[in-house]
Amino acid sequence: MAVTEPATTALSGAHEGILRRQSLRESAARTYARSLPIVPVRARGLTIEGADGRRYLDCLSGAGTLALGHNHPVVLEAIRKVLDSGAPLQVLDLATPVKDAFTTELFATLPRQLADTARIQFCGPAGTDAVEAALTLVRTATGRTGMLAFTGAYHGMTAGALAVSGGARDVRVTRLPYPHNYRCPYGVGGERGAELAARWTENLLDDPKSGVPAPAGMILEPVQGEGGVHPAPDAWMRRMREITASRSIPLIADEVQTGVGRTGTFWAVEHSGVVPDVMVLSKAIGGSLPLAVIVYRDGLDTWKPGAHAGTFRGNQLAMAAGAATLAHVRENRLADRAAVLGARMLGQLQGLAAEHPCVGDVRGRGLMIGVELVDPEREDLGSGDPPPPDPALAAVVQQECLRRGLIVELGGRHSSVVRLLPPLTLTDEQAVAVLDRLADAVAAAARAPHPRADPEAGARHRAGTGPAH
């Protein structure tokens, strides 16, 4: 302790200065740093230690990047092995033993019908670049330009990815309704709401007067994450697969945040048994380091050399860390663990909703969980609709969580959904601690006076969620 205490004291003293210099030097577009004013200096598993000496339970996990939590031993060992070997760290798209091992491990986890004939494209290091690659791929293969995308979607911050994200305006993108149980656009929810959404999609494509030309592809998230943690019903997913397959429309599944065991299966499409034509993968596949790929059926592989490239697509450390992560999740059945623990946590959060009217809805799949905060005082009792979202209350809950040493993210259309993305290594004891701190935070926020719901404030916050991809 005598060796580390002076350094700790010095860091604690520098904490405020680091935050002040960040606010002066970094752009107005920074996001997480605004609501999470901490200076991480050490981390292991679920826990982050700040420069001020405080410890936090991290349920943000790098926006879902850290499947095994911070600095997992198998990840560190894989990175050290590459560093000690003298291997090159960046090789563009050249073949290497590290890359071969990563690709082999990745293909072993894919849905069998896709893996048997799959091709892989290594992209730039962010998920948004992989989305761009997927859009280029299907447009090249079909010779068409239009895309089908869904309300509430989030696919990244580059031009094409933004175009297919919810709220964007692009004449080449047709918006389709994504099924919601809590705020169903048709006012019915459940299986009936999902069926109506599917029928609308089918009718739009088949009606010669709909104004929608044959699209190059459909892109969807099996669980909308940034959009507020909305799991797609399995039956609806199968309908989307049937609709696209029968019309020769490639189906793109964006598994950037849902992949690698997060939702209780290795890939979220496995819940429904759907095999997409293209899968967009990033975040956890790099084992905490930047890596993004698309995998797709070989019949789409018609683009020319250089049609999609990127200088940093040969990150050997990320491939080594990613292969180690994929293998650890697979060998230790962590997806199954996420399914069991996630269901238990959802059940306990339902009890929180019963105690607090401001908790409008609890939803999720596996360890991808959302708690929607609402303003029950503004409920229109005659309408039958849920109370309006309360982004101001959600922001207070997030800050109350931080005061209790719990890091959570906000999402949803109005940033009124508290999101939990803990690592798949979460223990039973840690899950209890997370839920206890969240429950205390909700109770404290419900008691405290705060500005009432401001949808415009939520929209302003929502516009800054870009770093997630």
From TrEMBL:
SUPFAM superfamilies: PLP-dependent transferases
Keywords: Aminotransferase, Pyridoxal phosphate, Transferase
Pathway the protein acts in: Amine and polyamine biosynthesis; ectoine biosynthesis; L-ectoine from L-aspartate 4-semialdehyde: step 1/3
Origin: domain of life: Bacteria
Uppermost EC category: transferase
Stored PROSITE patterns: AA_TRANSFER_CLASS_3
Membrane-spanning intervals of the chain: none
Entries under InterPro entries matching the protein: Aminotrans_3, Aminotrans_3_PPA_site, Dat, PyrdxlP-dep_Trfase, PyrdxlP-dep_Trfase_major, PyrdxlP-dep_Trfase_small
Single GO MF annotation: pyridoxal phosphate binding
Reported cofactor(s): pyridoxal 5'-phosphate
Region (Disordered): 446-469
EC number: 2.6.1.76
Pfam family, one: Aminotran_3
Gene3D superfamilies, sorted: Aspartate Aminotransferase, domain 1 (3.90.1150.10), Type I PLP-dependent aspartate aminotransferase-like (Major domain) (3.40.640.10)
Protein name: Diaminobutyrate--2-oxoglutarate transaminase
Lineage start: Bacteria, Bacillati, Actinomycetota, Actinomycetes, Kitasatosporales
